[in-house]
Design brief:
heterodimer; A: mainly alpha; two-stranded antiparallel sheet; 15 helices; 67% helix; B: alpha/beta; Rossmann fold; 4 domains; 7-stranded parallel β-sheet
Chain lengths: 368, 655
């Protein structure tokens, strides 16, 4: 939007030197981050009050059923703040004629609203049993994922035709093989759905998802920056992607929003992300990964998410069939508290793990 | 804008009489209030409404409908097609009749009509009112409630289940016959009905179709009841004539077999031990309201209607809820009232192995005799029942509908608190904990009746529920089944079976073998529960040498998880001698896992309390070595402490 404003002013003959600054990607990204961070921090408390009064609280309680030591009754659906802060900041600092940007924002907001409906239903009917059913939720997610995946391989795709169906693998220079349009479409549907769910199950401890998502987003922002820069991409032997700079802006805005949310979500949380936040953030990461053609980087950068969904699936699909636990507790972060590691400590340890994974992922920029 | 004059009304709801009568009762009230004019009833062909509705002088139209619940995916699809067809038919009826008000009372007949009415709502300007009589509505009614402008409910807890937020508590709309104050003296009423004035009149009826389990239980209970002087039992067998159950043909031979020659098959009466007439069977009561009014005690089903009639008349009642209905609604209805002390409840047992559901005859006889001999208790029940009655229900409903038709919003409620029994259904473990912690009561009886059914179920999840029930209810008669199950059940069930045994009051036969089997189990949670079982009965099980050795082995096994090693150390203090325990415990003091150090401290405390640890010097040295550093802690939110202090002060009566 800033871009439109400057264009309009310049057409009127008004020009200042710092306008050129506002055209640089670095500056816009930093401003997007700062804006969303400020919005999230400033509106945070208002949102807590709003959610609390709307009774969007994590499992209801009667008047006297609050416990002094439990977090029951904490407002949920705080992802609304992330949605608001990130979308507004990205719209202000991004180029509104960019397909990538609008696509990512649309998907981000849609998935967030699906999550919000789920959160609201859970609260209205006082039980996770009454939230959106597994099937309904899957269908609502696929309602976005399928068209998005189709768009990736279609002629209108923002990705250059030569790269559309090629599978890039980290630490390998050339695309490993070509999946073909149908193969890539199916792969994309599966992968995006898995990523969204993996991020969703990771949201179970104060600050865990916010920290882990920040590191993954940072990795993708760096990749987007490299790919949008003609010099850097030639030097590091990456394909040059026009329009990827808008993903830098979006990613930076989302990092700011997530950090701004962490402001209130750090242990002990005043507000939870809820599905509103976890589905939206998961969707944003997945969309960035695919638009940058770095989807195979996710198992490294987002290794923590992969571990979480893996333990949870192993227990749910195999363990319940065998009739026994296969892992101590699923998803993985519950195993840590079960073993006697306090929640804040477990969260910090998992942050450290995701930082290490992010470092390894960044290594693949150069080492290939 | 206030409309005056009667409007055209469409009534719907059906399948069983339980849904038709409320619609008629509401219609009666609407006519009396001058709201309903010309009316049309939409029901299903061949159901109760086809018989009942014309008798009340109402026009009847038919739509197609089908139940959704239960049947498989194919059945659900077929039901969906039928309902869609029904919606089209209903649209036709509504367009021709052009009503201003649609009143639906549930049952699957009402679903297509409500959907059609919702589609036509903007064009016809009609209002939709749903009347939900049961505590927990079925899926179609929940969905339909979202389309309704107003949902009338008969139970205060119902808004919790209904998806709509526009609920109004009115109570159950009983027929006007129950509201009229009988002009007849009780004595005159009894003379007219042919009942001895001094006798204790018990009216038994399983509804208009009759109930197999009530009929059979009563027949079997009659010999015992015949010994009680002053009892007069009137029994409505019911109209059921199906291949499944024929009420009269099934009951008469049973009555003859139970009473022998005291039973006169021609008049369907029987004489008691003193030779007086004490029992009369009839197929159907044409004047059931009079019989209920004259009765000292009513025995019947726990449908919403039957309960509401009892409340309206203020009678003592033994409710026998039918089990296995959608959402267990009769059982829940009965429990809700019994918790208020307004009815007595007898629960049906599921028939196993091809048998039919049944009520134990001796329980029924005992309950009838106890109440027949205790007029004070009957009076208490009757008074509580009357106190729960809602005589205003018709007025509340018509007033709200009048407002609605005038284009205004009636005051409705959505403030909801989760009823306890809902939490129990939702979180099975909270039910188990409740059963375990509270003295025997209503819930214990309800779930006592379900143990056998659950244990015999085909799927593991239900068997698992049964295992937990056996534990919580301390059903020693079922322990052998749990022990036998250890050989074939999967891990969760083995674990829960051992946990159930550990709740027993005393160490039963086979516990030692079960514990030994558990110690060698391949699944760690089973080993953990076996150790907990040993700790529960240290005197009996600790004396078994194999178990003592097993405890020592598991506590010392390095590759064992912390859950098992911790449980083993806790058990060790109770079964091993002091020297062996201290040697085993020493390395636990510096274990990395805080759970193991916790186990050590638990064990030491227990050992000191029980006097098994006497060498205080050695224990002191051990304690001094325990590393008490950990990251785990429990936070306390001070603002919540203050909130609770303020809230409690608010709850207390001011002085």
């Amino acid at each position: 939007m800033i871009q439109l404003l400057i264009d309009a002013l310049q057409r009127l003959g008004i020009d200042f030197g710092f306008f050129r600054l506002a055209e640089s990607v670095t500056f816009r990204a930093l401003m997007a981050l700062a804006t969303s961070l400020a919005v999230a921090v400033l509106l945070g408390w208002k949102l807590v009050v709003f959610l609390y009064q709307r009774r969007l609280r994590d499992t209801s309680g009667e008047f006297l059923s609050l416990h002094t030591h439990s977090k029951q009754g904490t407002p949920t659906g705080g992802g609304l703040l992330v949605l608001l802060a990130c979308a507004s900041s990205a719209l202000v600092w991004g180029h509104l004629d960019s397909v990538q940007l609008l696509l990512v924002i649309a998907g981000f907001v849609y998935l967030g609203l699906v999550g919000l409906v789920d959160d609201a239903l859970k609260v209205r009917f006082r039980s996770s049993l009454f939230g959106l059913g597994q099937l309904t939720k899957t269908l609502l997610l696929l309602a976005f994922i399928v068209p998005f995946s189709w768009l990736l391989v279609a002629d209108a795709s923002p990705v250059p035709a030569a790269l559309r169906t090629a599978l890039f693998v980290p630490f390998v220079k050339q695309p490993l093989f070509d999946l073909g349009a149908l193969g890539f479409f199916l792969f994309a549907v599966f992968a995006i759905f898995s990523i969204v769910n993996a991020v969703n199950v990771t949201d179970g401890m104060d600050g865990l998802l916010c920290g882990a998502a920040t590191t993954v987003l940072a990795v993708y922002v760096v990749f987007a920056y490299v790919m949008s820069n003609a010099v850097l991409s030639r030097y590091l032997l990456f394909p040059y992607l026009t329009g990827a700079e808008e993903l830098v802006i979006f990613g930076a805005a989302l990092i700011g929003a997530v950090l701004g949310f962490l402001w209130r979500n750090a242990f002990p949380a005043e507000v939870f992300l809820g599905d509103t936040g976890s589905l939206a953030i998961g969707g944003a990461i997945a969309m960035m990964a695919f638009l940058l053609r770095q989807e195979m980087l996710f198992p490294i950068a987002g290794g923590l998410f992969v571990l979480e969904i893996f333990t949870s699936l192993v227990q749910e699909k195999i363990g319940t069939r065998l009739g026994r636990r296969l892992v101590l507790r699923a998803p993985f972060h519950h195993a840590l508290t079960f073993r006697g590691i306090a929640e804040p400590k477990a969260v910090v340890r998992l942050w450290i793990v995701s930082l290490l994974l992010a470092a390894i992922a960044l290594l693949s920029l150069k080492v290939r | 804008m206030k409309r005056s004059g009667p409007v055209r009304v469409v009534l719907t709801g059906g399948g069983t009489g339980g849904h038709v009568y409320p619609a008629l009762a509401l219609h009666e009230a609407l006519v009396e209030a001058g709201i309903a004019g010309e009316s049309l009833y939409l029901g299903i062909r061949g159901r109760a409404e086809e018989v009942i509705v014309p008798r009340h002088g109402l026009r009847l139209g038919f739509v197609r409908a089908a139940p959704v619940a239960g049947s498989g995916l194919l059945g659900k699809l077929r039901a969906g097609v039928t309902i869609a067809g029904g919606v089209l038919q209903a649209i036709g009826h509504l367009l021709r009749f052009r009503p201003k008000l649609v009143v639906a009372t549930g049952g699957y007949a009402s679903a297509p009509v409500v959907f059609a009415a919702f589609l036509l709502r903007p064009w016809l300007g009609l209002r939709i009112v749903l009347d939900e009589q049961n505590l927990a509505p079925g899926l179609l009614n929940k969905a339909a409630s979202l389309l309704a402008d107003l949902v009338l409910v008969a139970f205060r807890e119902t808004p919790y289940f209904v998806w709509s937020t526009r609920c109004l508590f009115t109570g159950y709309p009983v027929r006007a016959a129950y509201r009229e104050v009988g002009e007849e003296e009780p004595a005159a009423l009894r003379r007219r009905l042919g009942v001895p004035e001094e006798a204790t009149l018990v009216v038994v009826s399983g509804g208009s179709l009759g109930s197999r389990s009530i009929n059979r239980a009563l027949a079997a209970a009659l010999p015992a009841l015949a010994e009680v002087p002053g009892l007069f039992i009137v029994h409505g067998l019911g109209l059921a004539r199906g291949p499944e159950y024929d009420a009269v043909a099934d009951s008469l031979p049973r009555l003859a077999a139970a009473l022998g020659e005291r039973f006169d098959a021609a008049s369907r009466t029987a004489r008691n031990a003193a030779g007086e007439l004490f029992y009369r069977a009839t197929e159907y009561f044409h004047d059931f309201a009079d019989w209920q009014r004259a009765a000292d005690l009513v025995v019947g089903r726990a449908g919403a209607g039957a309960l509401a009639e009892t409340m309206a008349l203020g009678r003592a009642m033994i409710a026998v809820p039918k089990r296995g209905l959608p959402g267990d609604h009769q059982e829940l209805n009965a429990v809700a009232l019994a918790e208020e002390g307004a009815v007595e409840v007898l629960f049906e047992r599921a028939g196993l192995g091809g048998e039919v559901d049944q009520v134990p005859a001796e329980e029924l006889a005992a309950a009838i005799v106890a109440l027949a001999n205790d007029p004070e208790r009957r009076a208490r029940l009757a008074a509580r029942a009357r106190a729960l009655d809602t005589p205003e229900s018709a007025r509340l409903a018509t007033e709200a509908i009048r407002l609605l038709l005038a284009g205004r919003e009636p005051a409705t409620t959505s403030a909801i608190v989760e009823p306890a029994f809902v939490r129990f259904q939702r979180q099975y473990d909270s039910l188990v904990a409740h059963l375990e912690a509270t003295p025997r009561g209503l819930y214990h009886r309800l779930y006592d009746a379900k143990v056998d059914e659950y244990l015999a179920a085909g799927d593991e999840a239900t068997v698992n529920r049964g295992i937990k029930l056996v534990g919580a209810l301390r059903r020693a008669d079922r322990y052998p089944e749990l022990i036998a199950g250890l050989a074939r059940w999967p891990g969760f069930l083995r674990r829960n079976a051992l946990a159930a045994l550990a709740k027993a009051e005393r160490c039963g036969e086979g516990f030692a073998a079960a514990a030994e089997r558990g110690l060698g189990d391949s699944y760690w949670e089973v080993r953990r529960e076996a150790l907990a079982l040993i700790l529960r009965f240290p005197a009996e099980l600790g004396a078994v040498p194999a178990l003592g050795r097993g405890v020592e082995r598991l506590a010392g096994r390095r590759r064992e998880g912390f859950e098992v090693r911790g449980a083993a150390l806790r058990a060790a203090v109770a079964v091993l001698d002091e020297r062996r325990f201290l040697a085993l415990a020493a390395p636990f003091a510096t274990e990395r896992s805080v759970r193991l150090r916790e186990a050590l401290l638990d064990a030491v405390a227990r050992g000191l309390e029980s006097g098994r640890l006497r060498d205080r010097m050695a224990v002191r040295l051990l304690l001094e070595r325990v590393v008490v550093t950990t990251s785990e802690f429990s936070p306390s939110f001070r603002i919540r402490e203050r909130f609770l202090a303020a809230a409690r002060a608010l709850e207390e009566e001011p002085r």
